[in-house]
Amino acid sequence: MEILDPVGSTQAASRTPAPRPASLEGAIIGVLDNSKPNARVLLEGVARALARKMGARDVRVWRKPGASIGATPAVLDEMAAQCGAVLTASAD
Amino acid sequence: MLGTHEFRPLALAEARAKGLPDLGIVTVPHPIGGIAEEIVAGKALNAVDAVLAAVTRGAAAGAAATGADGAASRHRAPDDLLAFQEFVMAQGWGDGLPMIPATPERVAAMLAGTARAAGDLVAILPPRLGRATVERVAVNAVLAGARPEHLPVILAAVEAVAQPVFNLQAIQTTTHPCSPLIIVNGPIAARLGINGGGNALGQGHRANAVIGRALRLVLQNAGGARPGREDRATQGHPGKYSYCVAENEAASPWEPLSVERGFSPEVGTVTVCASEGPHNINDHGSATPEGILTTVAGTAATVGSNNVYLGGEPLVMLGPEHAATVATGGWSKADFKRALWERAQVPLSRFDPSNLERFAVVHPAGFKDRPPGTLAPLARAWTDIMIVVAGGAGKHSVLIPTFGATRSVTRRIEG
To answer: What is the model's pTM?
Structure first.
């Protein structure tokens, strides 16, 4: 028999990511802590090790207001303006 | 983007929905929460090389959206009804219970239940950002076993869960055991046979069963919250199959929920709440409002609740006999909410210090540097407590906590 599809189309837009940096030397590495327990430990641990290894200038940390609430546009704009690369997390 | 192995399917779905399917995603062994920081730091060091590769390599642009809202595409499915059940599960469309094949004829009959056009967009549903058109909702309603006259209630519920204050993205993907509970008010409940009497949250009434189930299937299929994949519930709860109830307005001494929210009593409404399963409140002894209050407050004031630190609107579903005891004592619904908020408080000494530290970050006013005798209420304000009356004869009420970072939404049911 023939049946209709229960899933359908999506709203997902195609986006072109920002160019990847060739090097992190002198860059600021941003961390967006998603507020899950120990996420900051993991993200900052990776960022600091990366900074040491690649000669980045600094690591700066921002935070979402809660694990289940998105970051504010102001925070995202600030990170985009300041950082050469950003690490964030999904869920746990 | 970092995460643990367990959450990789969700991270991939989110990247796809944002149009970046090739986003660098690095995972570490689960878990990172509830373990020593030194162990997490070790996991961080092990991930550094993979993160470096992800940060510096090019990521391709995402695929475009998967087409416009034309008529639903069609699939060949087995004619045999038993084989059809295997087919829907293999497609990932099922919930485990038998389904009705959504043939073009059945979907057309379902669409006769609404005046809305088949191609109208009802909502965009996370995490997949699926476009839930009227027709798409109707297809899932057929699969769920719904009748055409149920469709307007289902459409209103889909619209309600998609309101930003409901926070559907989080509710669809959280580890917390929650699912949208649909509370129906107005004469439409009786007209459709939506039960709000005895066994209101249990089995035995088709309208409750299929309306709640249809919403779940829309969320799973159009929304793309597939169990064990994007839907990361640690245990979930049985209401994830279906969770729909009518308020027992006839047996309530107070104004219905919909009237509290500004609708006239003749208007049919749905209210959706991101709800845990119901927990019993047994009180066979109390003959006064204070007595009922003592039992409800004692059951509600608990340590492991999302509402106690995230806020939100915990729901108390009073059985009609408990509600009558409270009202006969002269208390309004607001009186009971206010008294419950004052009484259902947890001393901070009952929480483990590590959790208090975490709560202090989320809700500083309630938990940061508070003296030991401080009490944490079960909601941020007494007006956040929801009370509805449902059920039949008997001395039971139920407590239904919520996800916390969510607000319930009430919408009118349109034809």
So the answer is: 0.93
